[in-house]
Write a structure and sequence with these properties.
Blueprint: H1 2-20, H2 22-29, H3 35-39, H4 43-67, H5 73-91, H6 109-122, H7 134-148, E1 153-154, H8 156-160, E2 180-183, E3 186-190, E4 195-198, H9 203-243, H10 245-257, H11 259-264, H12 270-290, H13 294-308, H14 315-332, H15 338-356, H16 360-369, H17 373-392, H18 394-422, H19 432-435, H20 437-465, H21 470-485, E5 492-493, H22 504-517, H23 528-553, H24 561-571, E6 576-580, H25 593-598, E7 603-606, H26 614-627, E8 630-635, E9 646-654, E10 657-661, E11 664-665, E12 673-677, E13 680-687, E14 695-698, E15 707-710, E16 714-716, E17 719-732, E18 741-747, E19 759-764, E20 767-773, E21 779-784, H27 787-795, E22 800-806, H28 811-815, E23 826-832
Parallel strand pairs: 6-7, 6-8
Antiparallel strand pairs: 1-4, 2-3, 3-4, 5-11, 8-13, 9-13, 10-12, 14-23, 15-17, 16-17, 17-22, 17-23, 18-21, 18-23, 19-20, 19-22
Helix pairs in contact: 1-9, 2-4, 2-5, 4-5, 4-9, 6-9, 6-10, 7-9, 9-10, 9-12, 10-22, 10-23, 12-13, 12-14, 13-15, 14-17, 14-21, 18-20, 18-21, 20-21, 20-22, 20-23
Length: 833
Amino acid sequence: MTDLLALNALVAILLFIVIAVLPGAAFFRMPILRRDLRAALPSEERWFWQIVTSLVWSVGVALALGALSAYAIVRVAGINLWLGVFVLIAFRGRLRMAAESRGLTAAVILPLILAGFALWRFLPADEYILGGKDPGVYVNEGISLARTGTIFRRDAIVADVPADQKELFFHDYPPTEYYGLRFMGVFLNDPATGEVIPGFPHLLPASIALGYGVGGLYGATSTTVFWAVLGLLAVYFFGARLAGRAPAFAATLLLALNVIEAWYGRFPNAEVVMQTFVFAGLLAFSYAVTDNNRYFSWVAGALGAALIFLRFDAYLAIAAIAGAAALVWIVERKSAGWPAGLLIAAATALAWWYYGGPMRAYFWQYRENLPAVGAGLALFGGALAVVLALGAMRGTVATPLRHTVPAILIVTVIGLAIYALFFRQPAGRLAAWDAYALRRFRDAYVFWPALIAGLVGFAMLAWKRFWKEPAFFLLMAAFVVFFFYKLRIQTEHFWIARRFLPVILPGLLLLASAGAFGVFDNKRGRPVWRAAAATIFLGFIGWQYAVAAAPVAAHVEYRGAIHQLQKLADRVGDRDLVIFENRESGGDVHVLALPLAYAFGKNVLLLDSWQPNRRKMEEFLKGAATRYDRVLFVANAGTDLLSSSIVGTPIVFTPVSLPEYATSGWDEYPAGPRQKDLGYCLYQLSIGQQERRGLTLDVGGLDDLHVRSMFARETTEGRSVRWTKRMSLVAVTGLAGTETTLTMVMHNGGRPAKAPAAAVEVFFNNVSLGTIAVGDGFREYRVTLPPDLVRAAAANPDPAELRLMSTTWKPIDYLGGTDNRDLGVMIDRIEIH
């Protein structure tokens, strides 16, 4: 066993080198495009570029292979090896850079500290393999790519459902470009063929597929951590060019301490990849323009092309950098080079097919808000004409632009910040969370000292350094104005924080650090007192960040989820069909459906309703019995599907409790970690005749096919129970028609004296049987059943309905704490005999 583990570790290391190091090393070392300029870079930055370009290449290869339904990690590794061999043969012994390159210096310790600190802070990664939200979709889509080899899939399980029974699992969304949902975040384009597509572009899933190939499920979930480390290094290396190593190191360390980076550094998301690409792209753009380094023109273009397939709204960053390129060309007749424009134009042409075709379900909302094709081309043509005209008048306009553009930008950004911080108010269509967005960003994430220092730093650096790094200043202005005008995202913490992760937060901290240290001057250096004061000031901010982020840094979202899903998958055979209850049932067990299907390759369907059509369900189960060994059902909240012919045989109850950070509205901070109940009951569904011997139901046990609209099961006094809600329902099956008595074991839950008295009015098939006053402690309460009502219920093929109307109370109102549920009474057992 030890030898096998060692062999697997060796294979993983070799795969990592071939995927994340080899291609970039081959490109970087080729003796073309002024290699001496690359060799002159610090050794630590040379390694950074080799890894970044390797990943852009490898992820691009994975994406291309997936589009051709030919992905496999061994193919990616094979292509990379052939690339290395080709470069080695083509350039023979000229790949060594020792004679040209700079040796190691003490400065290498700074990025090593940052990388080591980030790995310590972000590992272990969140086990966000669950469905239901964006992160789970990204992870499972990546694993599915690794398992199936394709990004454009036809789901055979969906196609296998008979046409007249598909409504059990899917329904049409007419206003959209897609038919319905396969899972939350996964669109179903065609229910007849099973054509499915994720709700997000494929570049991040392609990188997760590579992570899965290297390290399995934990490798897939840890891919984000690797991107986060690269993102920090990208910010550091660009910051060092912008303001010097000391401000860059301090800013990057603050970024790693900040709660936004602490949360998203281990949480699967595209924004942390965007942070890597944007700041690496800014640095490459700077080298291409300022140093006329054509190698980095190719790199900048490749990073821009990758951004297009990461998130469509990355075009905001591309547009800002393109604007900087236009300004530099007009004023200084410098350009980033045709390779950058060529690669981005080619990627845009491919993206037109990608987003308008296979990804139309994702793209249609963007398309609704974008100008028509003709109008867009006209706008682009008009902008190009203006740039060319100004370029032709360079001698006249260059000097005025050189002096006025930085001043206008500084006044605009500072003016808008003052307005947003002190005067902006919600009114009309301006929502409160948009009006107060900058204030909330200040209060929840960066705090006053960093924000003020950032604004001062923006003014200082833009005035003195704008024409050296125009792309950075225009990019910051574009993102700040765009997202603080309207957040355009679900307004809850930490979901809102995604908007600030790629550009705004790292850019602000670079500016704040530069403002504290002062603008770096190679000739005079930096006064010792200024460096000491800056260190103390930024250390105070870092202390604030560390304290604020401490609960997040100690938390691993859904830790243990992979183990629990493996246990569920082990109970399911390859020829079994697993049906999950719908989220409308009131529980969250549906989040297990996506990973069971995509990460573990099981046959999975998700009910479209908590109350499916029973006759269609009976027909479906009859057909499924001929195609599958077993039909299993997973539930934890209640689904109304039993009938006299549908039998649900309990198999097992599995308690599952996973750590989950609380969510909150835009105007308050999350309370901290809590436990998410994902305990589930597993049943086998079949067609047959139920035994007619009355009802004996252990509420809080294997009861999910009988109870509806009750709270999650709990254990108290050694009993499994559920709390009722204001209205709770129980499906009554197995009646023979001779039953006379309903018996319920209930407890008022220890209500405070000031709370409303516990009372439950009982209805049997809409006929009131009276009201029960429920006292303290578990007791039996009996109700007599009318004989004619019972006989009529027994003759009906569908279950009878027991409706319980309870008086409720909120513990938070009487006992304090955080429990704001409207609680009725606790029920332990229901019997009808």
